[in-house]
């Protein structure tokens, strides 16, 4: 995805099991992709976005975290860590492909396919304003909030 690109017209599933068409979400919007519920980095990232949820709401920005985990797993993950950030499922990988975050990864010398930790900030008219690829979690949610406030 390049700056100025529209939000991809893909549908994900909310933690409550409802379809959510990303292209129909009014901006500004933050979409962040993460590999898997209940792992250390993903938990920390969701906690960081949860801690800033009110600040994002005050700025008029909706935040949606997406992984390939099921809606039921998202519900358990949110309950376990008292997360308030909105989580959505992309079980078939359509959103991951559209955003270009599905690809080859390496861990401990092994190569596998997975979700690249990435965040996309869309402006009020649904155009990509900023993106972060290969995200490092510490301080990331704060950087996204700062960029969102600058829209």
Short summary:
By secondary structure, the chain is α+β, with helices and mostly antiparallel strands. It contains 5 helices and 9 strands, in the order βββααβαβαββββα. The strands form 2 sheets. Strands 2-1-5-4-3-8-9 form a 7-stranded mixed β-sheet. A two-stranded antiparallel sheet has the order 6-7.
Account of the protein in words:
The protein has 151 residues and is an alpha+beta fold. The longest helix has 12 residues, at 40-51. The model has no long low-confidence stretch (mean pLDDT 96). The two termini are 19 Å apart. The chain has helices at 40-51, 53-58, 71-81, 94-99, 140-149, and strands at 11-14, 19-21, 29-33, 62-67, 86-89, 102-107, 110-115, 118-122, 128-132. It has one domain (11-149): Glutaredoxin.
| Structural domains: how many | 1
Work out the helicity level.
25-40%
CATH topology: Glutaredoxin
Pattern of helices and strands = EEEHHEHEHEEEEH
Specify the structural class. alpha+beta
Q: Give the spatial strand order of the biggest sheet.
A: 2-1-5-4-3-8-9
Distance between the termini: 19 Å
**The CATH top-level class label:** Alpha Beta
The largest pleated sheet is described as: 7 strands, mixed
Q: Kindly report the average pLDDT value.
A: 96
Number of helices: 5
Over the alpha carbons, how many angstroms does the gyration radius reach?
Answer: 14 Å
User: Which percent range describes the beta-strand content?
Assistant: 25-35%
**Count of beta strands:** 9
């Amino acid at each position: 995805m390049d700056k100025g690109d529209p939000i991809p017209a893909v549908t994900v599933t909310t933690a409550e099991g409802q379809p959510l068409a990303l292209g129909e979400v009014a901006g500004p919007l933050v979409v962040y992709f993460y590999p898997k519920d209940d792992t250390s980095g993903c938990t920390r990232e969701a906690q960081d976005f949860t801690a800033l949820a009110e600040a994002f709401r005050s700025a008029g920005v909706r935040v949606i975290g997406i992984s390939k985990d099921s809606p039921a797993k998202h519900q358990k993950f949110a309950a376990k860590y008292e997360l308030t950030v909105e989580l959505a499922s992309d079980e078939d990988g359509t959103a991951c492909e559209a955003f270009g975050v599905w690809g080859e990864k390496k861990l401990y010398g092994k190569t596998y396919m997975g979700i690249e930790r990435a965040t996309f900030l869309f402006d009020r008219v649904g155009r990509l304003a900023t993106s972060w690829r290969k995200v490092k979690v510490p301080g990331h949610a704060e950087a996204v909030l700062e960029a969102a406030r600058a829209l």
